[in-house]
DNA sequence: GATTGTGAAGTAGTTCACAGCT
DNA sequence: AGCTGTGAACTACTTCACAATC
């Protein structure tokens, strides 16, 4: 079915992108969409959409377009979001709490199965979602027991590497890191960083550039 | 000083990256760092560090390395984060609140000067930081009055485009969008998207791939 | 006639490898 | 001797353009 050899990293990112408008269309919209329309909704080039999808098979019909329902199902299958994924969070501050409550996580089948914090004050506290905050030294045991695949780091930067090491030891296969620093992992655990300030710095740079080019 | 013509987008992102370990080093570390060491801390290639920096001038000393203090100052100047940047937030839910309280924003000089929410229940409420939540229809007036340059969207996806339009109308030059959808802007406003679920989907994809390559 | 799927062409970003400086 | 700065080589990604299909 696939001519998969090596899929470009940006392609994976865009697949997730494509799924957003497709979900909307599924509820209320025509059952078929062209690469041009889909590209438009996502701010990419139509040929890009076609090429991205073609890495994984022939999902479209020439002269017609892509069936919205089928395409969405395929994308979810590819991204392995067709079944629930178990997460844990480390660091239950403002950010951590907002992630646990996050509707988009819930909607897409990401389930927080455990929450940890190094602050003894917080340990034992029961969250709105029903989880009880556990101490960090329980990470290994709990993650293994609950078959947690992905750990989310929402601690201050200082503690991030230690938490990362604990998660690695617990056998998680992926880490979503919100701390503004690079954490080091072994080969069989992948890290994605979400650093808001990098994005802001990017904006600040371009704001400044715009000023310059006007002057 | 610069041979600036067109700076690659990834270079800007990495500059923000480089500044993290430099800040740490400034407090407690040798006053000089080599491209190799810096690259190591950030998980990039040493030649990449040198090339990135060289776009903006000759900051290093051959045979020696880069002066930590000077380099950090230069990077901050380039990213225009050497002076405070004024932000507003729209959508004061869990996520919005955690962003307003975020230490890393504060530390880097990003200042929230206004907060808006479409929920009448919340309007008038006073936040921990002292800001009072205002209704969305005040965005234009308040942003202009307070000279807000960047708007942060932390609403559910449904309302995001409307909020974006209000921010454009208010004359903001940059938007940091946390809603999981593409918002449309005009040419003189830049958008950066922070979509956590895209990152998770990325992880999920690769988790799955690892399984496959083992089998 | 419309729209996909794809090789080929084009563009952007990364790494090499070494001259040049301290 | 050590490390930067940089043209050249390489690699990755995007877009074009058109044959294939409905």
Q: How would the blueprint of this fold be written?
A:
The structure is a homodimer of 215-residue chains.
Chain A: H1 9-27, E1 32-33, H2 35-42, H3 46-54, E2 60-61, E3 65-67, H4 68-78, E4 85-90, H5 94-101, H6 103-107, E5 110-116, E6 133-134, H7 139-145, E7 150-153, H8 157-169, E8 174-177, E9 190-193, H9 196-214
Parallel strand pairs in A: 4-5, 4-7, 5-6, 7-8, 8-9
Antiparallel strand pairs in A: 1-3, 2-3
Helix pairs in contact in A: 1-2, 1-4, 2-3
The first copy, chain A, binds a DNA duplex (22 and 22 nucleotides) through residues 8-11, 34-36, 45-48, 50-51, 53-54, 58-66.
Question: How would you sum up this structure, described in words?
Answer:
The structure is a homodimer of 215-residue chains. Chain A has 215 residues and is α/β, with parallel strands linked by helices. Chain A folds into two domains: 9-78, Orthogonal Bundle (Arc Repressor Mutant, subunit A), CATH 1.10.10; 86-198, 3-Layer(aba) Sandwich (Rossmann fold), CATH 3.40.50. Chain A has nine helices and nine strands. Chain A has a six-stranded parallel beta sheet with strand order 6-5-4-7-8-9. Chain A starts with 8 loop residues before the first helix and ends with a helix. The model of chain A has no long low-confidence stretch (mean pLDDT 93). The interface between A and B is large, with 59 and 59 residues. The structure holds a DNA duplex (22 and 22 nucleotides).
């Amino acid at each position: 079915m696939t001519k998969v050899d090596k899929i470009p990293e940006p392609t994976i990112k865009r697949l997730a992108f494509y799924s957003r408008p497709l979900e909307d269309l599924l509820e209320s919209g025509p059952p078929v969409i062209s690469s041009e329309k889909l590209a438009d909704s996502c701010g990419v080039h139509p040929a890009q959409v076609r090429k991205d999808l073609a890495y994984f098979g022939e999902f479209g019909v020439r002269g017609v377009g892509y069936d919205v329902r089928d395409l969405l199902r395929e994308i979810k299958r590819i991204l392995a979001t067709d079944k629930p994924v178990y997460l844990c969070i480390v660091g239950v501050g403002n950010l951590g709490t907002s992630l646990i409550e996050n509707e988009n996580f819930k909607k897409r089948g990401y389930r927080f199965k455990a929450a940890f914090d190094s602050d003894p004050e917080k340990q034992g506290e029961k969250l709105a979602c029903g989880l009880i905050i556990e101490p960090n030294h329980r990470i290994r045991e709990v993650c293994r027991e609950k078959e947690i695949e992905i750990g989310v780091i929402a601690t201050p930067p200082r503690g991030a590497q230690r938490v990362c090491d604990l998660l690695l030891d617990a056998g998680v296969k992926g880490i979503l890191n919100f701390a503004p620093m690079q954490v080091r992992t072994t080969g069989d655990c992948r890290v994605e960083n979400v650093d808001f300030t990098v994005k802001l710095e990017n904006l600040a740079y371009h704001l400044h550039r715009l000023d310059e080019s006007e002057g």
